[in-house]
Design brief:
By secondary structure, the chain is mainly beta. It has one helix and ten strands.
């Protein structure tokens, strides 16, 4: 009982201290990403959504976002063997593969800044946080080369084909965020320019052990192994309302 009173008083004082200068700001942001898997090859993507920011301390804001975020990257070539099946096609080679992941993402970010910039027009900030992404879909572009057992030609290439490969990737994606931002006051609004890196924390390849695809045919050679995401994003945001 003796410990509860000091703890309760401390918690109340802390809450009042936060509430005395706390502000909640909501706004929107839009930006672009350069994305890569844990192998060579990059793809460009789009990010955009809404955010809410809460001032916890003079030097600390906490921001939560809900974003549509594109990730992805290049994948290695692979070959599917159909020679054991009756038919004219002996195999298919997949080359120049690029994947776009369409994610719904929720980042939670701590913004660290020096209190002396509080009343300045420009305030630099250090960004550190985590993000959870839900994969809503995955599309792959690739070239397909068909090899034939007989006929007038031994092979045919079809360029820039699209394929839904959502089942190849895990639905949940966790990542860490690090970067920097600059807040610029413009009247009642605050504009923000930021650059941040997002690194994947969990591997997302459903074929990491060479499990055959859902159609039961062999040929996932070239798709095995761990796969992690990484993104470098540049974004611009603006507060819409302050509470």
């Amino acid at each position: 009982m003796k410990m509860r009173k000091p703890v309760s008083v401390f918690a109340l004082c802390l809450a009042l201290s936060f509430g005395a200068h706390a502000q909640i700001r909501v706004g929107a942001k839009v930006g672009a990403n350069i994305n890569q898997f844990s192998q060579p090859g990059t793809v460009f993507g789009f990010t955009g959504g809404a955010f809410g920011k809460y001032q916890v301390l003079d030097f600390l804001d906490v921001r939560a976002e809900i974003l549509y975020n594109q990730q992805g990257g290049a994948r290695q070539d692979y070959y599917r063997d159909y020679s054991f099946i009756e038919g004219n096609v002996s195999g298919v080679q997949y080359t120049n593969r690029y994947v776009n992941l369409h994610n719904l993402e929720i980042p939670v970010i701590a913004e660290l800044h020096h209190p002396s910039f509080e009343d300045e027009v420009i305030s630099p900030r250090l960004l550190l946080g985590f993000a959870y992404g839900l994969n809503l879909g995955a599309m792959e572009r690739h070239d397909k080369t068909y090899y034939f057992n007989d006929g007038p030609t031994s092979q045919i290439m079809l360029s820039d084909k699209k394929e839904n490969v959502e089942s190849n990737y895990k639905a949940s994606q966790w990542g860490f965020i690090a970067g920097f931002g600059i807040d610029m006051k413009a009247g009642e609004q605050t504009c923000t320019f930021e650059v941040r890196y997002r690194g994947g924390l969990n591997q997302i390849n459903n074929f990491r052990f060479g499990v055959p695809p859902q159609d039961g045919l062999p040929g996932t050679i070239g798709q095995e192994g761990d796969l992690y995401t990484s993104s470098l994003s540049v974004a611009f945001g603006m507060t819409i309302k302050t509470f």
